[in-house]
Amino acid sequence: MRRIIIGISGASGSAYGYATLKALREIGGIETHLVISSAARRTIELETSLAFESFEALADVVHRDDDLAASVSSGSFVTEGMIVIPCSMTSASAIAYSMNQNLLVRAADVCLKEKRRVVLVVRETPLHLGHLRTLARLAEIGATILPPIPAMYAKPKSVDDVIAHTVGKVLDQFGIENELFKRWRSPE
Description:
Blueprint: E1 2-8, H1 14-27, E2 30-36, H2 38-47, H3 52-58, E3 61-63, E4 81-87, H4 89-96, H5 103-113, E5 117-122, H6 129-140, E6 144-145, H7 159-173
Parallel strand pairs: 1-2, 1-4, 2-3, 4-5, 5-6
Helix pairs in contact: 1-7, 4-5, 4-6
């Protein structure tokens, strides 16, 4: 069974995290370990009509963000890596500098030290030089920076289409086959 950690930080865009969990549940064959930050719980409440328990119901295993003894805090617990979706600049900065004050950051740090894939769906705009330097540091230590930027060639008709495009691109990073978005084809 493949294992992937899903982290949801307090950045705007909690719907991306929900859609990722839902897509992985529908695809099957992947054990998901979920960490929702305390800030994300508040953001979910503000942005969606869903309770954070709806997110948890889609995961195979749920870990408390304050449980630094959870399985995902150790490199000996083998996973394919971690997706932080959305990823706040606070979380990105903490990951970049190994500031392991919570499980979301610790799990990402462990994945990086074990050379496992870490995909950060960073939600911030505009970016100042400090943000850019943090993102460059993350790329240098092995993280993939994947901002939620829609492809207009797909002619999205809804917010769900825009979200599905980003989630599909994230799953591509793990080699997870999906049909969540319209892929580019050469013009006729």
